[in-house]
Amino acid sequence: GKGEFDHFMLKEIHEQPTSLAQALEGRIDPENERIALSDFEPGTFADVESVQFIACGTSYHAALYGSLALNQAGIRSTALLANEYSVSAPPVDDDTLVVAVTQSGETADTLNALRQANAEGATTVTVTNVVGSTAAREADQALFIRAGPEIGVAATKTFSSQAVMLLLLGQCIAADHHGEPPADLEALLPELAAMPDAIDGLLETSEADALAEQYAHSQSYFFIGRGLGFSVALEGALKFKEITYEHAEGFASGELKHGPLALVTPETPVFAVFTGEEDEKTLKNAEEAQTRGAPVIAVCPDDHRAVDVADEHLSIPETAPDLAGLLANVQLQLVSYYAADLLDRPIDKPRNLAKSVTVE
Ligand code: F6R
């Protein structure tokens, strides 16, 4: 049941410290500076030259997160919408690893793309929450995110666990490919181990409810970010639109001036996600919106320069650069939840949507 919570979505947001700890259990060893994914012995990915991630919806945003992190680790990778794969897949060969990211393991679009990749001779891995799912059975190998059942149609805890597992997988691929662990692994592991506590603290102190109340009657909601923060901006907007039924869009912060700025008014709050990737540029982009009267909400640590510039602030704990976006995402999940609750939406079962989309 929902226990003390009004909705499964809120319960699942609050389960993230536990679900992440479960995902990481036995898989990271900060003391010895290593990652151990039991089904993937060191060397498994030695021949991988490039990686394609395929996924839909929220899982696509996690895939984008994993793909950007892998590019930053020096491995050629792209995230592709599974429903576009049949018409736009880049060539695959036997050095290509194709990673299907799907919470349910039953999404028709993702299964089609996975089957195509299998048929073309790629090595395939599924990252999924469901043991025994079709995607888990049909890929060469499966990596389970261990988030536990997710009842709310809007994916929350599974996004966080997917993104973290993709970071771990990416570190293993980069280590095998380069013949040594990525330089930032040593700094990343303790921060990964600290993620459950960091999210706990964030949940206890979040002011997302008051913020949602302040802006719940706006015209449109924009989310901007750069790099890993861009995938979080996309996810923040998807969550917001699907449960509030209000118009929301995510943009790469640098794209704002290439068109979307025409939509910006005092009625369009802009959530700016700061992940330490050229934050100065993102701040400048946010100020361009602010100049047009839009309230800017900075999602960043307390001592960040953006706090002084922005109209409002949602706080995230200090962490490793690869993880800041995931903490920001938890604040955005809460904003969406509280905004939808104020608007009296059926949060766990939004109209027209299903938890698992088994048609093309
Ligand atoms: C959004 C949401 C959907 C799913 C998408 C893919 O909150 O839940 O966008 O992420 O339908 O589903 P899976 O991950 O099961 O393949």
TrEMBL record:
Residues annotated as the enzyme's active site: K355 (for fru-6p isomerization activity)
Species this protein is from: Natronorubrum aibiense
Highest rank taxon of the organism: Archaea
Alphabetized UniProt keyword annotations: Aminotransferase, Cytoplasm, Glutamine amidotransferase, Plasmid, Repeat, Transferase
Subunit structure: Homodimer.
GO molecular function, one term: glutamine-fructose-6-phosphate transaminase (isomerizing) activity
Keyword Cytoplasm among record annotations: yes
Ranges of residues in domain SIS: 36-179, 211-350
Gene Ontology CC terms, in alphabetical order: cytoplasm
EC nos: 2.6.1.16
Enzyme class (EC, first level): transferase
Functional note: Catalyzes the first step in hexosamine metabolism, converting fructose-6P into glucosamine-6P using glutamine as a nitrogen source.
GO biological process: carbohydrate metabolic process; fructose 6-phosphate metabolic process; protein N-linked glycosylation; UDP-N-acetylglucosamine metabolic process
Catalysed conversion reaction: D-fructose 6-phosphate + L-glutamine = D-glucosamine 6-phosphate + L-glutamate
Localization per Swiss-Prot or TrEMBL: Cytoplasm
The protein's name: Glutamine--fructose-6-phosphate aminotransferase [isomerizing]
Chief location of this protein within or outside the cell: cytoplasm
Full-protein interval shown: 245 to 604 of 604
